[in-house]
Amino acid sequence: MSIQEMRRIGGEGSRETFELIIGPVHMETENFSIIVTVEGDTVVEAKVNAGFLHRAFEKLAENRTYIQNVPLLLRVCVPDPDHAETAYSMAVEQLLDIEIPDRAKYIRTIVLEMARISAHLFWTFGMSAAVGLYTVGQWSVADRERFIELFEELTGARIYHIYNFPGGVRYDIPMGWTDKLMKVVNHMEKRLKEYDKVFFENDILITRSRGLAKISTEEAISLGVTGPNLRATGVPYDFRKLDPYAAYPYIDFEIPTGKYGDAYDRIMVRRREIEISLNIIKQAIKELPSGPIMAPIPHPLYYNVPPGDAYARVESSKGEFGFYVVSDGSDRPWRVHIRGPSFIHGVQLLEKLLKNVRIADIPVVLKSLDNCPPDIDR
Amino acid sequence: MIEEELVRKIVEVFSYVEAKVKRVRRVEVKVSREKLPEVAKYLRSIGFKHLSAISCVDRPQHGIFELVYHLWSYENRVHLMLKTTIPRNKPKYVTMINVWPNAFVYERDIWEFFGIEFEGHPDLRHFILDYWDDIPPLRKDFNHLEYIKRKYGVYDPEKEYYLR
Amino acid sequence: MGFQVLETSKLLNYARARSLWIVTFCTGCGGVELPPTATARFDFERFGIISTPSIRQADLLLITGYVTPKTLKRIIIVYEMMRNPKYIIAHGSCPINAGIYWDSYNTVKKLDLYIPVDVWIAGCMPRPEAILRALVKLMRMVKEGKALGWKRYLENFEFYRKNQDRLFGKDWRKREIEKLRFYIHD
Question: Rounded to two decimals, what is the model's pTM?
Fold first, then answer.
């Protein structure tokens, strides 16, 4: 918060307005900045200044082959890369018109749920820092490490796994890996109760986030809000159920919803999602079929894709993550359009919700939306 | 099949659209640029309330930009791609903010990366690119290697760097 | 005199090496590995390193990944606002040669042309162990008085400035200062 001296821009007496720049040198905004106009302590208008992370993925993807694009495009959302690579793979599978084998579907489900949990645990760290309860942040990052280590054993990498490929998954599950995963899942279930005591049912969190930055269902849908932020308003809209992919149609799970659509509901929807993801992992491990993990693709590295276009979406930890891939029949995509959830949550929704919020609550609103700046800039 | 029913319904109301089922839960509707706003309003009224994204595809060989509105209906569980084309020379189109409010960000994005003007859009400004001084970068005729050579002084735009 | 005079700079270097404070400015993918490095499991606080929101009191700037021109402006402003001596660690392949974004029009290709870097970490994405190793290496360099990036920046300011101007245009400093006039002192 160092370059944050206030700048007077208008008004008279007690109704003076000031301009305040928050970020990018800030713990919570992470690489994007918000220019807020404040009257006293209350935000009158907020404008998002993004673009600090623009890497031009959509241009780069046009010059790389379909396989080369997998390690590139998963970098769109850094805390949750698995959903990006799966969405892209699904779009290419739609173009190639192939169906992945059952085992690959189940492995994808397990990996995606692990990714969701680790993204939510990472978010817990940020959320706890936003309200000043640092203890649970230390715990959740340490618990995330358990999932990251399992990822490392399965895929060979900690953050960018490059695991879900067009046609299936890259490696089969190693011996004894599912037992380790079950251990971690059981540990996490016990751990969540402790989280509740320290953080999710903590009076400080409830007082600071209850009734803050409310949004109604109609507004949320008309703004294109998806994911936990939409479910917090009370509708069970989840693309795992609505537009099913991987093994989700065969798995029985409920969808957590909120009631008021405020910051606390958004937080609690995410917290309950961790629990439900743990259940999904348990079911998927129990029902894991045997068989091949890759569908036959034309060539392992280098193939032409029939002309056409396809849109594939997944329900990432932040909302709808979609890829629109257009092919002209060559070995490289003609156009790849990335639809990230934060492009809505971090820009239009945030600008709307920050109105009439006090300065001290800006990080709480921001974190309760689980905004991912690299995904805004692409 | 909800998709086929939907296609039949749309073609009944608007005889001039081209509609077809692409695959499960994916419907494609092609419409000329003059007629798109009324089709959009109708689609909004029958449940396509969620605008997932607006994609723009540059096709210089045909001299057009293709605009794709990705719509999702939560009631019918169908994804509808509403497609139209606009000429590539001095591209201009009307804004859809009054139909889907979140068209605001996507239209600004397309203005920034493809240079398409949206009439009635209140805030067309550079959002992501900082002091951009070239043609919009996602157009196919933007030579990124030449730009890199000019800005950063590396690579030769004449040489072939990509795997062929 | 009968006693040995303590070399002030040696004492200061020793003290500096044990209290490196980091600016909380994560500039790319690498930021995702900083929370594990900072918290319970890897815990860089045991080396006397903490992250501080105050640029003026910080010694260390982490460039955690690819750098876009828009970020680079902020990095330069932040770096010039930090007090001497100051150090930079660059994470990953991207600051070295833009890594996987080698043909992106919006990432800086060689970071060393614009600001001086003391320690590089290769790889994508650097593991927390690699970050710790780089921090320990920097501590050793500071202790021995070898981390002289800030001196290099002062001595070759014309060189750095020329490269910066070439990328951002001649009057970029004036433009940025106009924007941030109320936020930057001296």
Answer: 0.90
